[in-house]
Amino acid sequence: MASDLLIRGGRPHGLAPADILVREGKVVAMGPCLQPPPGVPVEDVHGALVLPSLVEAHTHLDKSLWDMPWHANTAGPSLMDKIDHERHARRAWDIDPQRQSARQVALSVAQGSLHILSHVDIDTDQGLWCLEGVLATRERCRALVDIQLVAFPQSGLMRRPGTLALMDQALTMGCEWVGGLDPYAIDRDPKGQLDAIFALSQKHGRPIDIHLHEPEEMGALTLDLVFERVRALGLQGQVTISHAFCLGSARSELVEPLIAELAALDIAVMTTGPAGWSAPPLKRLLAAGVRVSSGSDGVRDTWKHYGNADMLERATFLGLRNRLTTDADMALALEVCTHGGAQVMRLHGHGLAVGKDADLFTVRAENIAHAVAAHPPRELVVRRGTVVARNGQCLHLATPSPDPIVFTKEPA
Questions:
Q1: Which one of 174, 215, 326, 332 has the minimum C-beta count within 10 Å?
Q2: Main-chain dihedrals φ then ψ at residue 52, nearest 5 degrees
Q3: Is the pTM here over 0.85, yes or no?
Q4: Mean pLDDT of all residues in the chain?
Q5: What's the average model confidence in pLDDT over 254-269?
């Protein structure tokens, strides 16, 4: 889908006005008064802010209820309550992973996210059904968005015999990442789970992304076990810790050694900037040299009704959660949602510069801090030189319609 395009009259990164010339999907020139070669289309953005594409570095494409009838959320309060409720609701509510993942992809593209890292449930109830659906969406949307997939044992790994074999198969089928989840709190067997997922990583040559909701000492103990395996296996730069609530502890004597070790072993951290949970300290991580990404996590699913896949709004949440109030700090929040995610996903062509892929979007804002504060609609979204969304609407997939407000029965 690589195309030629001239974007006229924008302000790349909020700096001086400059035209952007794209040839065969790459930015080849940036500057004032560029002339398009014959036949190259022109998009005049009339002074809009031009930014590199957003990166959705943590979501669950197979779970979204977007554009489905409204289901009252009756899941219990604990993590296992929500996991069990979701596993049952998938079939009872017909949460078809192919249909729903395509809807969320359309939503992401319309808002300027052109790179997605999605966890996909692998368990003995669903088998590989969720993965098959999301793989179909990935193939259908290949020209619109980069999608990397994590084989994710949402219901537990050691506590559900047979899941490990399914994870192995999922990696053979096309998952680029090995997933893990709360080795103490969910599996009650941290050594067993971590040994299993690191063995899968070694076997398939894939990086690892571990959901870690465990708080305080429990989370710190899990991180220590992860550190041991990264050092022993030489997997520096190949592991991401998602959520990492334990790093939000107020106890600096617990947190600071963990941050130092994350930096030394080049272990990345993903944070959504959660409102209701402890959260990793964004500026302290970045100052230590830790790669940090962000994501929407669930988008209107059986766990919660919130979420709209807008990673520019997610930068707002990061700023609020981390008290980022200066213009420079607000720009840092956006950096996590663009360059930070690209670092974690190893997107070497990402960035608004000559020689990089022409993946970008425009917004009506005075500067980056203004865009983070207001997160205006995306006026233009360009993927490899092709306009894929305009005025908040994806042009190449069925666009999500307003949600019907229809209450339905809960699963029996």
A1: 326
A2: -65, 155
A3: yes
A4: 94
A5: 98
